[in-house]
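WP5 quarterly update. Target: Cell division protein ZapE. Source organism: Dietzia aurantiaca. Length: 338 aa.
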Amino acid sequence: MVSRLVDVTPVVPADQLVAQMVPPTMFDDVSFDSYIPDPAQPSQAAAVKACREFAETVAARRAPRKGFFGRRPKVVQGTGIYLDGGFGVGKTHLLTSIYHDCPAPKAFGTFVELTHVVGALGFNRAVEELSGHSVLCIDEFELDDPGDTMLVSRLLAELTAAGVSVAATSNTLPEQLGEGRFAAKDFMREIRKMSGIFDSIRVDGPDYRHRNLPPAPEPMADEALAADAAAVPGATLDDFDELCQHLATLHPSKYNRLVDGVNRVCLSGVKPLPDQSIALRLVVLADRLYDAGIPVRNSGMKLDAIFTDEMVAGGYRKKYLRATSRLLALSRFDSVGG
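Structure tokens (predicted):
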């Protein structure tokens, strides 16, 4: 019998929330050397150089130091780097390479994951758990929620004062790429208390997930989808509406455990989502599926129809475009990891 995600209610102990902040497994083997800059985009080669130097600086700053007369050395404020660019230009590859090159302890997570960890642990506990790290890598830094932005800005101020360095990425919408560094300016404004420690690095280029790739695949028939799920060990098969309802019962910090060990996610009856709260939960799930490289198959409507035009035109546009990009990439995967 094929398993269902709606039957899984994962439990994640609080003390494991920070420990699980590591890069997605699909990035286990990436490095600065494996990033191949596009010759037509000189900013990419420059970004590799800047990120490599940042990681070297973090490692040097965390090397053992002795204070005068046996006293503890003074804590040096952490440094920062911010990668600004569009979808699919390799920013996560570079961010993960930074993580791999920095000494432990260290942490890696998306902006959303970080806010979920702080929410689950409480602010003071989160600071305590992260303050001994060499680096905190934050993927997909988001500026569309003032409350979350203020929370993370305060957190980063505490951590950098404790000597933690910070590397972050964010997305500029494709149509804004030629309009100047708006995302970088927004980022610096929102973290103005410590913007002086951040070097902003531009990474230009087209979305590699969409280069020479066909549009969203046609949905499968329900019978074919069920047969596909039954034929793949570790596959799950869920009704789209039921899964969306189940996601509402789980804290988003548990979504990665929800899909742990899953080799394919099959969704029947996919259709446009009715409201923003459901859509944002699905964005988080799409991120976790993409992190794990789990293929997605579906019946109903195409995967690029999940987020309505009205949603995409609103304040969470970047999230919905990213989720759509990732779901389409997963729909072309044949097995876990692509």
